Amino acid sequence: MTEKEYRIIEIKENIFADNNKDADALRQTLKEKGTFFLNIMSSPGSGKTTTLTQVIPRLAQKYKIGVMEADIDSDVDAATITAIGAKAIQLHTGGMCHLTAEMTRQGIEALEEDFDFLILENVGNLVCPAEFDTGSVKNLTILSVPEGDDKPLKYPLMYQVSHALVINKIDVAPYFDFDIEKCKANALMRNPDLDIIPISAKTGEGVDELCAWLEREIEAWKNS
Amino acid sequence: MTEKEYRIIEIKENIFADNNKDADALRQTLKEKGTFFLNIMSSPGSGKTTTLTQVIPRLAQKYKIGVMEADIDSDVDAATITAIGAKAIQLHTGGMCHLTAEMTRQGIEALEEDFDFLILENVGNLVCPAEFDTGSVKNLTILSVPEGDDKPLKYPLMYQVSHALVINKIDVAPYFDFDIEKCKANALMRNPDLDIIPISAKTGEGVDELCAWLEREIEAWKNS
What b/e readout covers B25-42, taking b as 16+ CB neighbours within 10 angstroms? Predict the structure, then answer.
């Protein structure tokens, strides 16, 4: 086996921590370093990693980007991100279904560099990750067309804590009973402030709009 | 609003419970009643409910079937199951990402009837539900084609605790980079005893094989 270009680290939860306090402290540290930190959450297989392989090359000229890939097991995602030339680290949660701010901090320290744009690809799960503030500046959730337009009804907290919703895999919409307007209405019912961006991470459709949203948020954070 | 044909109950976790003991006791009670209890787990949107709408009409002549639909919120699934004429109940977990055996017992009691074949549609989540024995006789997990063939690598425990894997949405396989043989190999690497059944819950392809598997398991349990 050849040496990997990314590290895999085991992160541990501190069950005595005050997560909200840790998250605020982490955000403050990142603010001082000029780092915009995005937490991406979704169901397994919604296309978090594929979306990143579209977004990163478009923004890499302008920003120094680092990616933390969180998973129960495996390192397929860190390998994918490293293959497109970005700095990535694989975080293994030891069976944990979510990341806390303290676990995120361990990941950031293990990256050993400062970034303009830091991305956490959270554990694929619509329930638990929504319950823990990771210290992110913004939360983005991805819903893919094959999952169905009713998902915002079933996982309300995920939509309430998110700032943007990416509707992914719109290229396969003709093959599924998916009503994009109904999906948007369901999502906005959960969170009227949600920015909704339909994309196909496979074909690249809509990715420019997503990058424009990200640039706006990164610049707003830097200038805040 | 018209009166609903199914109940919605709020179930609560008893954090002091010994879940494995509760699960064994529940299995014993169900055994005495001649009830086969199947726990279905998957990622959100894999097609648990749609699969049930195919399976239930095929087996309803032979078995009395009851369905527990577990969700954080909403009752769309119980409504769907009731619409096909089956007895269903909606369990709200109050934000919990999984069901324990005690929570399951509360659902079974609320159904207020005995069944030959009792089905729990667990919370859509590949992580937490795998960690708790619900008292089921068999566990079935569903992976849908759009989620990707690498998912068994990422969620090992789900595959280890499952007896069967349904690969759903095979009708859309031509539109995704999904290698069914690679998926099977990944799944069998996690659990060599897994029975793997490819289906399309939309077109009905493979559903007879799934029903045959279920009948075998139900009869084996009754005669054990």
Answer: ebbeebeeeebbbbbbbb
* A143: nearest Cα among A211, A43, A50, A39: A43
% of chain B surpassing 90 pLDDT:
84
Q: What is the DSSP letter of B174?
A: G
* ipTM of the complex model: 0.84
Indicate yes or no: CB of A176 within 8 angstroms of CB of B176: no
| Selected residue of A13, A155, A202 to mutate for chain B interface (largest B Cβ count, 10 A) | A155
Residues of A in contact with B145 (CB under 8 A): 146
Question: Is B43 in Cβ contact with A148 (below 8 Å)?
Answer: no
CA distances from A75 to A44, A138, B153, B154 (A): 14, 25, 9, 8
Contacting residues of A for B123, CB less than 8 Å apart: 127
pLDDT digits (tens, 9 = 90+) for A120-156: 999 999 999 999 999 999 999 999 999 999 999 989 9
- Residues B64-84: tens digit of each pLDDT: 999 999 988 888 899 999 999
Q: State the DSSP H helix or E strand holding residue B167, giving kind and residue range, or none if neither.
A: strand B164-168
Decide if A131 and B95 are in contact by the 8 Å CB cutoff. yes
DSSP per-residue letters across chain A? -PPPSSEEEE----TTS-HHHHHHHHHHHHHHHT-EEEEEEESTTSSHHHHHHHHHHHHTTTS-EEEEEEESS--HHHHHHHHTT-EEEEEE-TT-SS--HHHHHHHHHHH-S--SEEEEE--S-SSGGGGS--S-SEEEEEEEGGG-TTHHHH-HHHHHH-SEEEEE-GGGGGGS---HHHHHHHHHHH-TT-EEEE--TTT-TTHHHHHHHHHHHHHHHHT-
For the domain bounded by A7-222, which CATH number is listed? 3.40.50.300
Interface A-B: count of C-beta contacts within 8 A:
109
Nearest Cα to A136, choosing from A200, A214, A77, A58? A214
The A residues from 9 to 48 touching B (CB cutoff 8 Å) are 43-45
Cα(B41)–Cα(B44) distance, rounded to whole angstroms? 9
Instruction: Read off the pTM.
Output: 0.90
Does domain B18-222 fall under CATH 3.40.50.300? My reply is yes
**Is the CB of B172 less than 8 angstroms away from the CB of A169?**
no
